[in-house]
Amino acid sequence: MKHPRTALLAALCLTASFAFAQAPAPATHGVALADIDHTVKPGDNFYLYSNGDWINRTTIPADRVAVGTFSLLADRADKQVAAIIAEAARSNPLPNTDLRRIADLYRSYMDESAIEHRGLTSIKPDLSRIAAIKTPRELARELGLTLRADVDALNNTNYHTPNLFGLWVAPGFNDPDHYAPYLMQGGLILPSRDYYLDDSQHMKDIRASYAAHAATIFKLAGYAHPADRAAAVIALEHAIATQQLTLAENENIKHANNLWLASDFSTKAPGLDWPEYFRAAGLSTQKSFYVWQPSAFKGESALVASTPLDTWKDFLILHVLEANAANLPKSFADERFAFFGTTLSGAPQQRPRDQRAVAVVNRTLGEAVGKLYAQRYFSPEAKAQAEAFVANLLTAFHHRLEAITWMAPATKAEAIRKLATLKVSVGYADKWRTYDDLDIKPDDLSGNLLRASLFEYHYSLHRIGQPTDRSEWTMTPQTVNAVNLPLDNGLNFPAAILQPPFFDPLAPAASNYGAIGCIMGHEISHTFDTEGASFDSQGRVRDWWTPADFAHFDQVTTALANQFDTYEPLPGLHVHGRQTLGEDIADLGGIAAAYDAFHASLHGRPAPVLHVPGAADLTGDQQFFLAFGQNWKSKERPAALRQQILTDPHAPAPVRAETVRNVDAWYSAFNIQSGDKLYLAPADRVRIW
Ligand SMILES: [Zn+2]
């Protein structure tokens, strides 16, 4: 889970699993006693011990790819958002207001007869232009027109775009006081390069299904020789995949800091007509760009020149159709779901239309909805409580930094400075953006979403060169997630995650620190994970560590990566410890800081025990660790799990729960002994922060 390399979860997973069923309304406060499986030894499988009874009695709804603590809470937030949308519609808002846009976008999603009636009207101009392409220059222009602000390397960790390249506008690596354009590799419709290059039978089967699906999409749109076109496009995508970096490679900041002048592209990455590409993308006056993956730019640009023009035209046609299929007539939308929802993610059926409509409004007009959400569902008292709680975590982390013995004094001083300048924002942003001039019609879903995508792109373009606004948010308040923004040296804790079961003012301190405390500690720890450590207290990419400090950090983090490599969530498919390392460091640092903050909150008094009917009482420490284990309660379909392992910087939830095996206090809390499956000898437990 999406989202940021630095968020708690991948946005993808949350989106995929969100819906309305079984919204949680905890009758009790603190650890969910009914979810514990007392037949499992905590030292053998802490995830199953914490959640086994819930897993045994829970089935994944047919319209979901997963269900768990985060998705159940997201269900509640979605119901709240649905109420906001319904009220907006009832209030008959004035034209050209955000309230009106909310109501009309929802209506356009629900108006299936208008969708059928409009057919492919919204994308006809694109398809006609593509058909008319005759020269490499015209091809470059069309490719430039597809550029969108649809990637985000460090905040919401999205490295994937089906367009040839993706744009991310964020504070500059070398000048974090101003926004700069980052360009990233793209071009694949399937979720990652592994789906094209992996030789397992499973992936071969997926590729065969993809070929059939792509042919069907061509056929539905009336193109002749659909199977041949599909095969040619997929061969081109395969060639692109061979040029792309892996996710683990993408996460290496030091390899991403490549500032290219606009004039460099034609020599460093020949093939594409770059001046024409940038002109079409509205970037002709931009003098420089950060190029995240230079080798992929070189390789992909060369493919533009070496692949027949007709193949590129089919590539563009398929990509336009796929990008819009969900919003086109039912034959397209159903075909798209059959492949992406069922084959790739494992969900037998689609969510009800009204729930998908809420998701689209949330995604498209997120801040307009979020402003109303925050006003209605997050009181000033709740905000103050959560802010006080974060302050305790920051204090605990500060003490841990001060107590570290392996860091040189100058490095430690900068680390403490970085923690002190961390900008923590709780609940919602101080100011809201609006969607002025975005044209939303009540009967034109596909057109609305095309205009919204362009609106977002222009919003990003206008920010280039502007001073960085360190109070900005990258998540909406109605999102059940949290995020660290390395280039802003800031944290966002949205309102929607600051509710039970994560944060419950009526619950014991032990479970609040184990649940939301570990989450807050996780985000703080990202400040000092493998990526965060590349940025100084000003958000600048700088080597502020001594070589000896870095050597130690490298040694312990490598040990953690090796530990995660041993997990095998699906037969034959291991966690990629390098790919998930930043998140795993954050989880481990989060538990350590939250545990300290919990004990500090006791002021020397013993923690109250929790009486468990028919079982032994739970001590404060046991409640703390159980609350952490229950954060990761989840069931996923195998296809979705496979996609997560391959494309997500976060390890699967059950694996994250086992992080406790590195924490000494967990051993004493549950009397874990050598011989227990999760047991690690003290020397093998990884300690970082
Ligand atoms: Zn994270």
Question: What does this 3D model show about the protein?
Answer:
This protein is 52% helix and 6% strand. The chain has helices at 11-17, 46-57, 69-90, 98-110, 112-118, 124-131, 136-145, 194-197, 201-220, 226-243, 247-250, 253-256, 265-268, 274-280, 294-306, 309-324, 330-343, 353-364, 366-377, 380-403, 409-421, 445-463, 509-526, 547-565, 581-601, 620-631, 638-647, 653-657, 664-670; strands spanning 66-68, 165-171, 179-185, 259-261, 288-291, 423-427, 483-485, 490-494, 634-636. β2 and β3 (179-185) form a beta hairpin. α9 (201-220) runs antiparallel to α17 (330-343). The longest helix is centred in the middle third of the chain and has 24 residues, at 380-403. It is globular. The two termini are 23 Å apart. Zinc ion is lined by residues 6-8, 522, 526, 583, 586.
